[in-house]
């Protein structure tokens, strides 16, 4: 009997539209001979609290009509028939699909889902907590300074700690929303205010000069697998939104790095995956300082469009999108 698979997409963050594209690609490539596939759109109708009880949850029919989801058990009723789901394919970037909220909800309901568990999602989504957790394991990171929204902004102290130029980032955001590269002390306040539009926590990091790479680690057919490495060459000042989604970068797979660098960063990405206890997909970002990889962040629901980095890496490894997506469901159901 075919399994009922819900693809959750959208979400409550600035990454909503990117998630819709990712979910659409999963929907397109999952084998309809093996699965009954349902698109579930989660979104905020109006600005408000970004919690699970708020927002619209709806099944999108073939003609894009909305059928409400019963949040009490994550089911739908369609043509008079109640439909429950055997597995959820999580394609939400940002809250509530990447920060642990949906994962905890599905764990409580006992519904398997393709991304990591709720604790791991919450930890990896919080850049400063993740880096603080990994440093005792010898993972190297940029020097950082943390700010909460109510904290005073001591620009001199920040510059003394991280130097210039530096990066100002929203602590819990993705797709380069809320990130600025700052060259002058007087630019800090505007950059921090920009980051606070995305999150009430900010992380300010020293600038690392070197080759930037992205390393996908997945569980594929029961084995933790490191995918071919991608080198990021941005036409802009850094790998910002334009570079990621509007063609202002080169994403070169396999990366043009030496064998020592390849071995080091592959092993480190796999170690991080295992130390944290991840499952499903992950994509970790690093910058090489000499031959040493420095961790920037870990994404646990990376982009899944045909142009996204993880699918590019899977293709380089000889894995078709249909195989990549089906394997994630098989692992969740295992």
TrEMBL record:
The main location class comes to cytoplasm
Task: Tell me the keywords, alphabetical order.
Answer: ATP-binding, Cell shape, Cell wall biogenesis/degradation, Cytoplasm, Ligase, Magnesium, Manganese, Metal-binding, Nucleotide-binding, Peptidoglycan synthesis
Q: Tell me where in or outside the cell this protein is found.
A: Cytoplasm
Q: Name one GO cellular component term.
A: cytoplasm
The Gene Ontology terms for molecular function here are:
ATP binding; D-alanine-D-alanine ligase activity; metal ion binding
Cofactor(s) needed by this chain:
Mg(2+); Mn(2+)
Tell me its EC number(s), please: 6.3.2.4
Q: How is the cofactor bound?
A: Binds 2 magnesium or manganese ions per subunit.
Q: Biological process GO terms, please? A: cell wall organization; peptidoglycan biosynthetic process; regulation of cell shape
List positions binding Mg(2+) 2: 297, 299
- Please, which domain of life does this record's source organism belong to? Bacteria
Pathway named in the protein's UniProt entry: Cell wall biogenesis; peptidoglycan biosynthesis
Q: Where is the active site?
A: 15, 175, 308
Task: List the catalysed reactions.
Answer: 2 D-alanine + ATP = D-alanyl-D-alanine + ADP + phosphate + H(+)
Family according to the record: Belongs to the D-alanine--D-alanine ligase family.
Q: Which HAMAP family match?
A: Dala_Dala_lig (MF_00047)
**Protein name listed in UniProt:** D-alanine--D-alanine ligase
From which lineage does this chain's organism come? Bacteria, Pseudomonadati, Bacteroidota, Flavobacteriia, Flavobacteriales
